[in-house]
Design brief:
The protein is an alpha/beta fold. It has helices at 13-27, 32-39, 43-50, 58-68, 77-86, 93-100, 121-133, 139-155, 170-174, 180-195, 244-260, 264-277, and strands at 105-110, 163-169, 199-204, 218-222, 228-233, 238-241. Strand 4 and strand 5 form a beta hairpin.
């Protein structure tokens, strides 16, 4: 049977779409033909999309959203289809976002820029505007990235709230983005984030030197069933790791990072001092 074929959601955004479709279908206990009846397509078409042999379309994605009750939500198949169409997201990232929105705990480390979950819309727009200036992406792709940052934040605004640990390399808070108003608003956002009951904010200072365990951004997710996965990016692609043994090594390094980083209180003091310089 086609359904037994192993899927690799990290292979491409289209493969991630197919893997997510299969996961959603099986979670409902539906066979491919049963879903086909609900969306007005054939079971063969469902199979082809799930295995990446046929690309999804807007009409198909909207039909899926109607069947799964996802229309207009941050996790809709239409939004995932838009990400594929725009081609502005790294391979592996769309699949990661679906897990991020359901995680009970998020541990992230970022270098150079404020992470998307903590960005203000103005900061995100300034960041993507520079990518447009460099002709790395189109204006339409930039707008989709800004919208995605907002949708990711909305997905985490649920009850019970997920626990979010954010460790920012000092370069994140020292790098200005946009004008002084944009930077100041972003500092305010970080300070408000630190005050939330379900968050921990720390800065990893430059003085850590060789004690810094990561040189690239990394995120570790803990799901409701206590399973863990990690996500890391290079300049070309993202990789979602589900092997628990491999993720445990990353989680151990993350704990070491937190132990070496500034405390939340000291991190807040640093951010407040930096904010004064932009006023």
């Amino acid at each position: 049977m086609v359904n037994v074929k192993q899927l690799n959601p990290d292979a491409s955004p289209q493969a991630a779409y197919g893997a997510r479709l299969r996961s959603a279908r099986e979670a409902r206990g539906w066979k491919q033909d049963e879903l086909a009846e609900r969306v007005g397509y054939s079971g063969r078409h469902i199979s082809a999309v799930e295995t990446g042999r046929k690309p999804p379309t807007l009409r198909f994605s909207r039909a899926l959203d109607a069947a799964f009750g996802l229309a207009g939500s941050g996790e809709s198949f239409e939004r995932t289809w838009a990400d594929i169409r725009n081609g502005s997201l790294l391979e592996g990232f769309p699949e990661y976002v679906t897990h991020e929105g359901r995680a009970v705990e998020v541990r992230l480390y970022e270098v150079g820029v404020i992470p998307g979950l903590l960005q203000t819309p103005e900061y995100a727009a300034a960041l993507e505007a520079d990518a447009v200036r460099r002709e790395a992406i189109t204006p339409e792709q930039a707008q989709e990235r800004v919208s995605l940052a907002s949708r990711r934040q909305d997905a985490l605004n649920r009850s019970p709230s997920p626990l979010i640990h954010a460790v920012l390399d000092e370069s994140c808070v020292r790098r200005p983005m946009g004008n002084s108003a944009v930077t100041n608003e972003q500092f305010d956002r970080l300070l408000k984030f630190a005050e939330m009951p379900n968050t921990v904010l720390q800065v990893a200072p430059f003085s850590m030197g060789a004690r810094r365990p990561f040189s690239l951004p990394v995120t570790v997710l803990t799901m409701a069933d206590r399973s863990i996965m990690s996500y890391a990016e290079s300049a070309q692609r993202g990789h979602l790791e589900r092997n628990s043994a491999a993720v445990m090594l990353i989680l151990k390094a993350y704990h070491q990072l937190q132990a070496e980083a500034l405390s939340q209180a000291a991190s807040v003091v640093m951010i407040e001092e930096l904010r004064k310089g932009f006023q």
